[in-house]
Amino acid sequence: MGAHLDTKAFLRQERVGTPAVSPERGLELFDAALARGDAALVPQPVDRATVAGNPEVPYVLRQLIRQRRQATRPRAGVEHRNGHADPDRADGRAGLAGRLRSLQPSEQLDVLLDLVRTHVAAVRHDDSVTAGADNADANRGFTELGLDSLAAVELRNALSAATGLRLPATLMYDHPNRSLLARYLHERLVPEGTGDEPAAEGTQVRSSPFKDMTVEDLVRAALGPDKQE
User: Fold this and answer.
1) What is the pTM of this model?
2) SS3 state of residue 139
3) Which pLDDT score is estimated for 199?
4) Phi-psi region for residue 93, left (φ > 0), alpha (ψ -120 to 50) or beta?
5) Which of 11, 25, 117, 227 sits 20 to 30 Å CA-CA off 198?
6) Residues 31, 36, 42, 44, CA torsion sign
7) Cα 158 to Cα 167: distance, rounded to the nearest angstrom
8) Which residue would you say has higher pLDDT here, 76 or 37?
């Protein structure tokens, strides 16, 4: 099943804590799973330290791996689902939002677009999609760039750490190119009508980049300009 994967894909698997296995090891794990008789098993090695070091542990692994957090006094408006505050996330969000508020709106979007490009390039191990590309490049779809579901998780984690925002797992698919994603981050970090304060965790963004887009617009955004007729 993984015969078509290249070196970048294998490296990406290692970074999220689920390294690839050799065909021989895979068969051994498969035989071991069959011998147990359980209804559902996933014979997959997991690097617990790497997974625990990610911004967020995948839901299916939370019973197996728990992140250690320092005890802190809760900060209003910034809480995890378990009710404990995350000051690092709050400080990161406030710092970036403060930097953005000192800039003009067009400059704010440029900063966020460069941020998105940088992290997309890191996920792809490709410097050709970093800052300095034109607007047409920013409108190329993530799937056209070769980002898959595993890359989507890595990109979400990286941007969550960089912005201090709790971002959805479907981030890359809800905002399918770098331009749309940068605009979404802008709405979360510098929302309109709220005194330019960053949106609190769990707050719904008032507007959506898809609000005034037709189905044809969404298809063009996902495919990118090179695939349009």
Assistant:
1) 0.57
2) coil
3) 47
4) alpha
5) 117
6) negative
7) 10
8) 37
